[in-house]
Specification:
alpha/beta; four-stranded parallel sheet; globular; 320 residues; 14 helices; 2 domains; Rossmann fold
Amino acid sequence: MLLFEDIVRAEKIVSKHIVTTPVVHSKALSEAVGEQIYLKLENQQITGSFKIRGAINAISNLNPAQKKAGVVTLSTGNHGRGLAFAAKLMKIKCIICMSKLVPENKIEGIRALGAEVRLIGTNQDEAQLEADRLSIEEGMTYISPFDNINVIAGQGTLGLEIHRQTPKLNFAFIPLSGGGLICGVAMALKHLNRNLKVIGVSMDRGAAMYESQKAGKPIFVKEEESLADALTGGIGLDNKYTFELTKQLVDEIILVSEKEIADGIRHAYWLESQIVEGAGAVAIASLLSNKFKLTGPSIALMCGRNINIERHFTLISSKS
């Protein structure tokens, strides 16, 4: 299983290729909830999301034969972009399998980095079949978007950064999908701050990890369209790591509606001067909707900015 030392080792690799994103105090959110709120601006990361951290660490830990065979993955966009960046950096072949529900801007962002994109079916499970086939039949190395120890450790480097920037926190609100991000961040933060509580935030449409935790095991959850498209998809019935790690490390999971996500995107733009995608807005959305009673300083992770710019303009121009 994941160890804190894995995250420390990952940072030595990852830090050479990324930027340290800032933490800022949010006056607007602090006034709204009555406690001190900070924002971790990972939406300012290279490739526009945190996913580059796990991708670089995972590819860096491949052996020469695996690198020669190339890498393949399933992605809703941001992991694919991060993996494409890392593969280009290390000059290895990369194929990204995606469903046709993925926004066009995310597809083009991946292609611009030189990776091959294969659009398969209308959900993640159908795209997963092609990724599995490439791994089995063509010998490519499959790198899970979340259920991979090196990916999780890479995402955990965010936790190390957050603690250095804001060591005295009571709560951390982290977007939750397959669990790679929240498990890595929670491991790092809780190792360094035993009193901190980690709150996972997901959309209320097809939240696979939330439903699986309720069921006590990984289950199939129908994928639905959402503003938080980066959080959609299943966790895998054969989940090896993130289901158990989420159970151990995440103190509570909150779900937010599509309207609340849209409100979070608008708040980020007009009151924090930040562009975020739906997944990057869910932590803010949970605070604005008062779904959790806060006591003491907290941080909300804005994990990505890769939203279609026309859709973003429509959202910020609307009041509801």
